[in-house]
Design brief:
It is built from 2 helices and 3 strands, in the order βααββ. With 58 residues, the protein is of the alpha+beta class. The protein has one domain. A 3-stranded mixed beta sheet has the order 1-2-3.
Length: 58
């Protein structure tokens, strides 16, 4: 038996990213929580930015 490793990626619009993650609370969340983000332009349906997660602090 083998284990499958899956990564979760949160896809959000450019507007959501600028509204939430440019605020102090959003910056804190990015620094403290291992989030992987894909920023998407909803008009062109293209990925405009990939943001890898920060390592978990121990």
């Amino acid at each position: 038996m083998y284990q499958v490793f899956r990564e979760m990626v949160l896809a959000i619009s450019e507007a959501t990213y600028s509204d939430i993650f440019n605020e102090p609370i959003g910056k804190l969340a990015m620094a403290e929580i291992p989030l992987k983000l894909v920023i998407v332009n909803l008009i062109t349906k293209e990925v405009t930015q990939w943001i890898p997660s920060n390592p978990i602090k121990q």
